[in-house]
Amino acid sequence: MLMARAVPHLPPSLQHITPDQISTVVFCVVAVCSLSCYIYLNRRPDPKELERQRRLFLATRGRITDAMLVDTGLDRRPPTSDADPAESVLRYQYKVAGVGYECSQDVSPLADHVRHIRMDLPIQIRYDPHNPGNSIVVAESWSGLRSVARREE
Predict the structure, then answer these.
(1) Cα–Cα separations (whole angstroms), residue 5 to 2, 14, 88, 117
(2) Residue 151's pLDDT is what?
(3) Domain that holds residue 33
């Protein structure tokens, strides 16, 4: 039977602690630190960041095809929506390999890119060739919209 021996370099008030108790405390501290690091490093990005990453992926690697705008939510904004702007959604239709798709894109974070667009002209979209339903009309670095030329007066 092993007997706990007093550790000579510890103060007298801590000499009753056994090496097993010390190793248990050390293990618990390491486990808590490891769990904290794991949770901190594996945080999921927020939905806005995921959408930005999706737009970036499609803008750089997506294939381009023609589409038609079906509807824009841009005209239905309430006139006094300074605090909470209404969602701006573009609905569009396109075909890939004979299959028709109707999609929409929330363009409220890209408000500067969707001003003065024309509904009567075809647009271009970028889509994921492995998942053609994953598509965009506009991103931070690319736009498939056609805008109205403004005259200087």
Answers:
(1) 9, 12, 74, 83
(2) 47
(3) 1-43
Per DSSP, 120 falls in state: S
One domain, residues 72 and 116: yes
Are 129 and 97 contacting, i.e. CB atoms less than 8 angstroms apart? no
Same domain, yes or no, for 123 and 69? yes
C-alpha to C-alpha distance for 94 and 96, rounded to whole angstroms: 7
Residue 143 falls inside a structural domain: no
Residues 21 and 63 in one domain: no
Number of residues assigned to the chain = 153
3-class DSSP state of 7: coil
What are the tens digits of pLDDT across the range 70-85? 887 665 555 444 444 5
- Which structure tokens are listed for 84? 């909470």
- Asked if the structure places residue 54 within a domain, the reply is yes
Provide the domain count of the chain: 2
Q: Are residues 59 and 102 in the same domain?
A: yes
**Stated pTM of the model:** 0.63
> What is the per-residue pLDDT for 83?
40
Helix, strand or coil, per DSSP, at residue 145:
coil
Q: For residue range 99-144, what is the model confidence (pLDDT) as tens digits?
A: 999 999 988 888 877 777 777 888 999 999 999 999 999 988 888 8
**Mean pLDDT, rounded, of the chain:** 81
